[in-house]
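FAQ: What does the model actually see?

It sees only this:
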Amino acid sequence: MAEHMDLFHDRFRHTWNVMYSAASYGKRPGGMSIRQFLNTGLQFCEHLHLHHTIEEMHIFPVLARKMPAFREELELLTQHKQIHAGLDQFEAYLKACVSGDQELGMTELKTLMDSFGTVLWTHLSDEVEQLGAENMRKYWTLAEMKTMPM
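And it is asked to produce this:
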């Protein structure tokens, strides 16, 4: 499960790095228009929202039956809430830039990304660690693992 989840997380890391590097250096990647850059950020937001919705509706409830880290009141779901507090502001800013209500400012973009970057990166690692084979064996049989929704 960890390897499968890490494939998704690697895409998030890659897109984050594209956006964050541009915000840090004040320059979009070569050959990328402003519209493409903004759409890259908006796709990141959309994909992360969808990814977390699927986890929260279909995966975490199954895992939470035996694994405390996936229970609503504990760390991984709390991280989702912290991520989305910053992600929602980031997304609103990008949408305002697309609509022309706001001019894209790399310093502002970096500030918005900094507001949830640490918890995002921690979460991407924590989740994969929880889903690692060694940890999963503590809670689940191989037969149970084969019936999981992932």
